[in-house]
Sequence to fold (1182 residues):
Amino acid sequence: MNDPTQVEKPLVDPDVVAQIKSWKGYVQAKLGFRNCWYPTLNSEELEEGKPVPFQLAGEKLLLNRIDGKVYCMADTCLHRGVPLSEKVECYSKETITCWYHGWTYNFTDGRLCDILTDPNSKMIGQRALQTYPVDEAKGLVFVFLGEVAEGKEPPPVERDTAPGFLDDDRRVRIFRRVVNSDWRLGAENGFDTTHIFIHKNSRLIPGNQTMLPLGFAPPPGNKDKLWDRVETEAGQIGIYDRLAERGIPHFEGKVGGETVVRAIHGGDKRLAEEISLWMPGVLKVDPFPDPTMIHFEWYVPRDEKSHWYIHCATKIVPGPDGDESFGREYETIWKDLYAHGFNDDDIWAREATQAFYDDDSGWLNEQLFESDECLIAWRKLASETNHGIQTRRR
Amino acid sequence: MNDPTQVEKPLVDPDVVAQIKSWKGYVQAKLGFRNCWYPTLNSEELEEGKPVPFQLAGEKLLLNRIDGKVYCMADTCLHRGVPLSEKVECYSKETITCWYHGWTYNFTDGRLCDILTDPNSKMIGQRALQTYPVDEAKGLVFVFLGEVAEGKEPPPVERDTAPGFLDDDRRVRIFRRVVNSDWRLGAENGFDTTHIFIHKNSRLIPGNQTMLPLGFAPPPGNKDKLWDRVETEAGQIGIYDRLAERGIPHFEGKVGGETVVRAIHGGDKRLAEEISLWMPGVLKVDPFPDPTMIHFEWYVPRDEKSHWYIHCATKIVPGPDGDESFGREYETIWKDLYAHGFNDDDIWAREATQAFYDDDSGWLNEQLFESDECLIAWRKLASETNHGIQTRRR
Amino acid sequence: MNDPTQVEKPLVDPDVVAQIKSWKGYVQAKLGFRNCWYPTLNSEELEEGKPVPFQLAGEKLLLNRIDGKVYCMADTCLHRGVPLSEKVECYSKETITCWYHGWTYNFTDGRLCDILTDPNSKMIGQRALQTYPVDEAKGLVFVFLGEVAEGKEPPPVERDTAPGFLDDDRRVRIFRRVVNSDWRLGAENGFDTTHIFIHKNSRLIPGNQTMLPLGFAPPPGNKDKLWDRVETEAGQIGIYDRLAERGIPHFEGKVGGETVVRAIHGGDKRLAEEISLWMPGVLKVDPFPDPTMIHFEWYVPRDEKSHWYIHCATKIVPGPDGDESFGREYETIWKDLYAHGFNDDDIWAREATQAFYDDDSGWLNEQLFESDECLIAWRKLASETNHGIQTRRR
Fold:
């Protein structure tokens, strides 16, 4: 029973609510988007015939590799709703059988193809679990979280990557971590140009002879747009942050007119000249963490309060040994100096932001400043160009 | 504050909702039923004058044995709502005194008979805690969860047991466990004939020279009823599952026409010829786990998400040493081979089903098949014949 | 989705609801009151320039000592809502800088005085974090949880203490603990005269040659008021419990006419002659635990389900060594015999009461008795004289 004498909660500023209407779809997308490709597990994690459960955008799913090709199917038996993965029983290459009553599903189309406890059931052939198209690229297993009409194909994976990611001879090292925050707080942490303030003491800066301002900000009285929205021929849609070009880098932080903190000048290597964020949630930092490399990172919704942070160190290295040689370089230098030494800070920052946005009231109560214009542009883009909003399924 | 831009949830098929109306009472009975007997602790757990707290159907209760007879009373002081059992203070045989302000209740009628801090209070004699009738049988303490009118008696315990349980010379070994699922998922797990698929590798099958099909299913084109509803002279109401007689046992499981799994044939002992489920939630499997024994199991609601699984191995053994001799047999053979070796699997199966039914949406979203006809019959019976539905009390 | 067939919950007695209307404000004050002083940390816990986060009445706050004076400011950056204390960065004595984007706030007025990543932002000087007035007295840091109009001062701390607490030469030993109950259950535990039943075996009674009845109760047929509401010249508002004078102490507890428990008579020292409870939640027991001492205890709301129990042992000890000498006495004798030996029992009692009041239905379902008249008087006083009710802020 509720308290019969409850105090009324204070109302929210209607102007703020009105502004949010222009990126309403983004606020709704707590679980991400539909009808787009998300990277999930690494290809090497999927062995032939060994289904692996995982969570994507609030859905419990299974991946399985059959004759080399990967399939994705719901992990919830249609009958009584139990997870098939609770006790995996695969009696043929293409199928998984529910441990409870023997309902058997084909990975290729999700079809209920047999029931071991009742081979005469009329349900057989008449029901199907949700399946999703799967593709693999650069060592990642991509899942297309959406429906594809009979006889149609999903769009190519490329559409939902950042430009250049799929380039020939681009070698990719993947480092996937669970971050306990909403995926949007991940994406905004990565794209937000002034968040680099948290990296001011990163060991990457002296370690790789580079420099990093404390932040970039628009010039006083700025009337220029600080970003560009682009769509590539491959259909990729994203925002370039132009603060590095059109804004002012600040290398000294002042309090009360006194300089109190200075950016470390570790050397003259120029990094991060172009920063862009692409649908459905992948950041590109070019070049980074070295003039020879490009950094990509994905924010993949797992549920309302956690995402996969898929960190991709990449470099073009031609030749048959390219992958192995980049792998050695990554393990020797970059894993510590960059994946940990730089990006570990982003993880606790995202998690520290979560409580304020837990119930989505943060979108109303935050107070943005000038350089956040790029984030607003991203929010609008995401609201306008998505192919559907993911919601909790039953 | 709510997200001002919340997406609407998908609606549920109205046909499914309509069907559920025919067993609405069962869906409501998340905490079980009222005005019926439930088994609780074992008689031997209740020593003279040592009150024991427990939880039944969402209520916090106390059992206490006084001059040999067991009484059941609410464990929540009327005054400020604290649990009496937080610090037991019994100053006379028939009473318990609240540790906080000395309110004292008589176990026989729940009456507030004294207040040690204010012997003149007008409350004395004018208030009473809820009490429930108690009976003991076969080593179980039964509580009648309901009101009994002045001068009336509750029905005999027998009404709420399965036939035969109280037979003379029937020896009973009780094994009680907490299972983290709704009691209904316990009852349906036990009664559902095709769930035996999970027992296909049970060590009981070879260990006791028996066999168990993978499942029983109705014959193709079946028009016969697969169950019988019965009411005994003692007022017991239950459903017999007739799939063993009228259905087809399947000893081979096929995927794509190939036999992929075969039931183990451990021997020719015939078991489980009659399976029946009785109000308010007790299963009888006759004979089981041996032609000389009958298995009974109760699903007793503790709260919305857990039940007591009260597993009773029974056998008729006449004579003064019958109980001791069956006790030795149970400990030597059956506890491992059957209580653990067979029924442990039921526990994790029930717990794996819980998430889907947590908020009761599972009743709308499940997809039942032919052999579940027996479950539907049970659900209707439970909706039609219960004597009241338990709800959270204040 | 909700259960489509939900059972209706039983209704509450409208007479009880009507009665609660007379102390509605108290039921609303789950997080305490606004516009009043609460004690928080100890002065000695605040070192110069070392901000400390804490929680008061549902708010996340910071305390910091600057040039000896303590300031209190919200611990939530205005920009993206992160806790400033997640990683403390103070670049000048008066300020704290948000670790995320360099927003910098002045502790004296909460003003956003600089943004290190964008010194030209128009936000600078235009926004401010909530600050609260702070004062220190008797080793406690008091925070005024409310707004003070421009050019005005908050009331003196004295208004929100119990009379005598601030007396010259009164030495105070503070022992602060977190108790997992609503602050109101703390206040009512302390003030309620019959709760002393829980202390009947306290080692303080024989240890300090005193006695304690099992309870005080109104005389039969009592028509006298059992309490006095007072307001002091300093504006302190409180209730004196007069049960010790106008009621009957009971030294024997009877069940069924038989004496079953007797109060321990440890000696003739007279204690606790006056018990009073003051806004916004501070108890005074005079004298206690010794004829030479006065006991004060505060119940400071942290959140809806926990409070700080600030236990203050006090004694008038004149002279320059007074504080040190009382400190030795407290550590040698009173910490064990009284702070633990007596008041530890109050802590588990409050926590045992919490579940019944968790959702505030306890206020409707409790059943009070004659001596609770003092509690009702307190509830009305708190409803009528508070300066505002605290609610969750955003």
Summary: The CA atoms of residues 1 and 7 of chain C lie 15 Å apart. The two ends of chain C are 28 Å apart (CA to CA).
